[in-house]
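Quarterly update, task 2.4: O-methyl-L-tyrosine-bound model.
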Amino acid sequence: MSSTQAANAQYLADYRPYPFILDQTVLDFALSPDATEVTATLSLRPREAVEDLVLDGGRGVELLSLDIDGRAPDPAHVRRDGESLTIAAAALPDAPFALTTRVRIDPSANTAFEGLYISGGIFCTQCEAEGFRHITFYPDRPDVMAPFRVTIRSDKPVLLSNGNPVAIRDGFAEWNDPWPKPAYLFALVAGDLVAVSDRFTTRSGRRVDLNVWVRPGDQDRAGFAMQSLIKSMRWDEDVYGREYDLDVFNMVAVDDFNMGAMENKGLNIFNSKLVLASPETATDADYERIEAVIAHEYFHNWTGNRITCRDWFQLCLKEGLTVFRDQQFTADMRSAPVKRIEDVHTLRARQFREDQGPLAHPVRPERYEEINNFYTATVYEKGAELIGMLKRLVGDDGYASALDLYFDRHDGEAATIEDWLAVFQDATGRDLTQFKRWYTDAGTPHLTMTEDWDAGDRGGRLTLNFTQHTPPTPGQDDKPPRVIPIAVGLIGPNGDEVQPTRMLEMTEARQSFTFDGLGARPVVSALRGFSAPVILDRPIDDRNRAFLLAHDTDPFARWEAGRDLAMSALMSLAQGGDAGADFIDAIGRLAADRDADPAFRALCLMLPGEEEIATALAARGATPDPDAIHAAREDLARRVAEAHADLLARLYDAMEVPGPYSPDADAAARRSLRIAALGLLNRIDRGDRAEVLFGTAGNMTERMAALNCLIRRGRGQAALQALHDRFGDNRLVMDKWFSVQVMAAPPQDAVAVATQLAARRDFDWKNPNRFRALLGGLAANHAGFHAADGSGYDFTADWLMKMDGANPQIAARMSTAFETWPRYDKGRRDRALSALQRIAAMPDISRNLREMVSRMIA
Ligand code: 0A1
Ligand code: ZN
């Protein structure tokens, strides 16, 4: 790494409080698309002795005037570079003072969607993590918090900011946010918008006006978002005792947004795909995600806004906890076991994958160059797993009292992971020194379990022997043992549970646990509920896996047994062997089990994805062959379909949901089982069922499932045309139209399909959703992206380079398509590396993309 790169790095160890206290922020915006003027008055006072005052401020911020207590300082005391503005201590009073700056910015030129920009004619902002510095000069760091007063002048009809409205009239609005907040939670929206409105009364009787703001014409797709908000508000009161704290809560949907959504205080801004939904345009998965993300952003009001992060190294403090809370919420709204399985599935697909390669980092990183590169599965999803583990270790009551203490002790503060753990220690008396390693040490622990059975000892004694080992990750070679909660149950030979779930606490590198008085040897159900984010290796044969799939009382462990069976069949097929009959038999019995939740059966029927298989192979030290994996998976799916053709056909018919569409969990569960059956039958019915379904489906869930099947059978053209004819002017549906074609294309055609789509006029690549639809679609086509000739790598690299000039955040995020490159064969590795080197050599590469690529090729 060159010294210039190292000079850009930020280190946790370097933290120092800001030398000034900010008592109040007053902002005035005179909006104009290419020349917006921002006047900022900051009431500051020195924390101790007066030092130079350093304000963050990007290149696009043009300073028009600056004064201190109404007077311009000597210009010799004001220094500007590309990233900041410094006022020498000599120009500052040793007492409270007001600093006023006037700046000009150009929102219309902002294609990075960071700071103030325009999306479809709507002025909007995105300030996390460091976007505010593109709006004005400011101490843009989360531990500098202040109440905000904001005035907006604009001819747009709706003018919004954080907090409560003070005055709204034609061309003018004033907003007051009394809750001190860091700049990253600032927001402003100005546009031609209409609201779906409702009202909520908090349990202490505060009346809150709720608005979901959308473009005129989109109101009929905003009702579900409003209902999700109301459910979230009630749930946070019921479960965490947290009430909302302003008179209004506004949500806005915009089409151009780098991420999913943003928790700005009292003014959440959403990617429109996470607000707008109708049965005609959104799938069941979209509905579930909308409900979860709205909850997530709302929950941030307490975990993120009222208590924020001291610095960006502590990002997991708000994100891990808020993801955990939104997972709990979804579990309560829908099916808890199904939600747990889905979450583990996502964790493995995204976080285990990240942990396995060059981008692995701790849940709390200690160094970064560009913080936007750390909004990762590790910080979010693994961060949530750590909260779940803590809860398991201290129990539900311990968790509840720790959370109460957290809110009491840190309300209004910018906190750290040390503060978070101290709260648990103080509330429960438990020493969490070893647990902290989960935050500081990267990598997925590998856990092995062996069994010793002694029929003669103590009425039948079972000993479980565990070892833990975490492979090295970049910059961290040695990993001391962590505390691992391992939930274990035992199932007797007749299928009855002889030992209900017991939480074993492993703290050593190797450790054994015994169970006595068992009579006959039981089958061990281990890591129930996925009690820790580890990879468990145990010698178990397919017969016992099938036994667990049939009898385990823990739904996660049951699903996992089926997963293991499928993996074992796939590994065997991928290596030229045969598929074990156990999997095919067991899966048939489960599919036919009318007592089981249809959503659970659907999850069991879905074979592991190609990426997941590759990750599992790599974790075992093998080199995944994308083509062989693709072939093995197709082969197994066809065998399952052939073996269970009648059963699947019956399920497909029986799971039809009569009546008008409803996105509720039960209806969605039936559709998911129906679609899982369709996906398998599609292998043997030439796509005939899919064709009928596409023509008759009254909702987007079944329509997209059918389209996917048709493309896989090479007969998608007419359906694609029909979808385009009907929904060509709906951006969200067209995003699906782009992605499904690349994702479902036969691997050998994927790059050609992507190339052809990228040449279309409606491939509006600067729109993050459209770009992700196409490039993300290709990355999701495992064997297509990893085409042996390197064409997937080259296509992706070309587009990342182009995108980097417009929107570095999106380019950097999409570059993670390459994060697994070191695990493939030499030919692929060489081609991926040369694509990455080509990117690295780009003359004006952004800090975002440069950091990602240099970590990947380090
Ligand atoms: N805090 C938001 C996610 C978010 C992060 C960064 C953004 O811009 C770079 C935008 C949104 C959340 O967790 O929902
Ligand atoms: Zn969040």
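Highlight for this quarter: The chain is about 40% helix and 20% strand.
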